[in-house]
Amino acid sequence: MYVPQDIKNFTEEQFVRWLGQYGIAPYRAGQVLRWIYHRGVHSFSEMTDISKGLRNFLSERLAISRPQTEQVQTSKDGSRKYLFRLKDGQHIESVLIPEPGHRTLCISSQVGCGMGCKFCLTGRGGLVRNLEPSEIISQVCAVRDDLQDPSSLTNIVFMGMGEPLANYNSVVQAIRTITANNGLQFSNRRVTLSTAGLAPRIDDLGRDVRVSLAVSLNAADNTTRNKLMPINRTYPIEILLSACRTFPLPSRRTIMFEYVLIAGVNDTPMDAERLAELLRPMRAKINLIPFNPYEGTEFRRPEEGSILSFQKVLLDRHYTAIIRYSKGGDIGAACGQLRAR
Ligand code: SAH
Ligand code: SF4
Q1: Beta carbon of 196 within 6 Å of any ligand 2 atom
Q2: pTM exceeds 0.85, yes or no
Q3: Residues 11, 33 contacting (CB under 8 angstroms)
Q4: Residue 231 DSSP code
Q5: Coil vs helix vs strand at 50
Q6: What's the maximum distance between 2 C-alpha atoms anywhere in the chain?
Q7: Whose CA is nearest to atom 8 of ligand 2?
Q8: How many CB atoms lie within 10 A of CB 136?
Q9: Which of 104, 108, 192, 194 to mutate for ligand 1's pocket (most ligand atoms within 8 Å of CB)?
Q10: 292 Cα–ligand 1 center, Å
């Protein structure tokens, strides 16, 4: 059977080229994409300012895919977890997080994750597969469709399942559409990619697109980081930070360093001092994420007192250091709790 291409896998530029093969004018690309991304239509037949002939032509060759929303769970803190079923039966999750005045959507880039970080539930099952650009973009489209006020969704973070830089091409392609004028029109300052630290890909990313960057550091010395995050043996802290230092951020942005606080592993005031020292040459903000426990893990969240003392060391050294109590813990939507069913 002939499987039509998914139109959401094209950037505008690629779609222009695709149309060009059939002698169709370039301006048609923007026209079609605006129907899809601005008006949210699900079929070519709804695009009423396009001739019937062209609509039929497109619908015979291209699909406008939609993932199936299998479940939506709402947490008592207001965050919502969406479970999507993909065309091959795999599942991914996205989490909508309410914040004062706006909302942030945390999206997935892979089914599972191959990075094997010891503290992360998503990493436990390994990588199942990469997502296509359309599957990344559709998470945003589906959640926006579900909102009473779609414009309240202002921020996108690649902090769901998967390591975005390990699915580089699809993620960059998706970012292009998410930030494009004839796409989802998110400001590039409000799209944040979080990585476990694939240093060479951080360089590539800075060259290819403009987005905000978050780095999951989680330890301030290589011995500890090696134990927690196997990727550190390939790209140790010095290499990672040197890629961060040259990363071209959108204006007025700083790099966000995430640090999961784990009792007895990386949570002493001494660790905090090392962290402060390490990040001194950079424009950096620090998110402290108290470890979210799940069944079968040997790690524990530190006592409240240790979390606050850790933060105090950083504040005393003039860092912006915020403790992020993950939302959605009661519905398995907190940082590091997402997994493919
Ligand atoms: N793979 C990317 C994107 C996922 S972001 C990355 O790792 O950056 C997921 C975030 O949740 C990461 O900052 C990770 O350090 C954090 N995390 C993972 N497991 C966690 C857990 N059990 N408790 C708290 N945070 C966790
Ligand atoms: Fe993958 Fe990020 Fe989890 Fe590490 S923390 S296993 S990179 S999702």
Answers
A1: yes
A2: yes
A3: no
A4: H
A5: coil
A6: 69
A7: 162
A8: 30
A9: 194
A10: 10
